[in-house]
């Protein structure tokens, strides 16, 4: 099944990037957003507690830890989604394009598979790709990541081999 093409304002790097690749390509602004959302969880909780106290402050240890944990998870999902937008060409991605070109050209020079080796049957790789493509848009319903190496990435890979020659 062909990958649906969108009119992206920036060049598309990958329509279904691997989890490790998205995390590797995160920018410092993504980490700052992650940290901000993590800190916002307990701060909002404390603010609500100040407005309407529910009991002694000593009973706040576990709720604050939970608020911090959920803030960290939410912050990671937000940062991951922002990084994915750059892969899809939805936001400015000049740094990622250069990094991608360098990384993939190097993989070709070394004789490695562009998107890693997979021991899954072809039909399972196709199913995994269809399931995880653009799944970052559904994080509010359920977090779903691409952990499968496959060749269904919605880009013309010949650009890597022409650069490495």
Series of secondary-structure elements, N-terminal to C-terminal: HHHHHH
Oligomeric description of these chains: single chain
- Class from secondary-structure proportions: mainly alpha
* Arithmetic mean of pLDDT: 85
Radius of gyration from the CA trace?
20 Å
Distance between the termini: 31 Å
Gross morphology is elongated
- Output the number of helix runs: 6
Strand content: under 5%
What is the β-strand count? Answer: 0
Most strands sheet:
none
How helical, in percent, are the residues? Answer: 55-70%
Low-confidence stretches: none
Key structural traits:
165 residues, mainly alpha, 6 helices
Present the secondary structure layout.
Layout lengths: L18 H6 L3 H24 L9 H28 L5 H16 L12 H11 L25 H7 L1
Helix pairs in contact: 2-3, 4-6
Could you explain how this protein is built, in words?
This protein is mostly helical. 56% of the residues lie in helices and 0% in strands. It contains 6 helices and no strands. The protein has helices at residues 19-24, 28-51, 61-88, 94-109, 122-132, 158-164. Helix 2 packs antiparallel against helix 3. The longest helix is centred in the middle third of the chain and has 28 residues, at 61-88. It is elongated, with a radius of gyration of 20 Å.
